Structures are given as structure tokens and as C-alpha cells.
Amino acid sequence: MSGYDNGFALIVVLFILLVIVGASWCK
């Protein structure tokens, strides 16, 4: 369960970074 939580957290962090970078690039 711990490994799954870590993987999910990593995906969430990458998604947030992608959104931030995308928003900054579009401006």
C-alpha cells in the first residue's frame, strides 16, 4: 500500500508541475 501511495503522490506532483508549466508557457 505504501508503494501505491508513493506512486500516486508522484503522479499528482508531476501533473501539478505540468499544469503550472503549461499555464506559464501559454501566457
UniProtKB/TrEMBL annotation:
One of its GO terms (cellular component) is membrane. The keyword Transmembrane helix applies. InterPro entries: YjcZ-like (IPR010070). It is found in: Membrane. It comes from the Bacteria. It is a single-pass membrane protein. The chain crosses the membrane at residues 6-26. Belongs to the SscA family. This is YjcZ family sporulation protein.
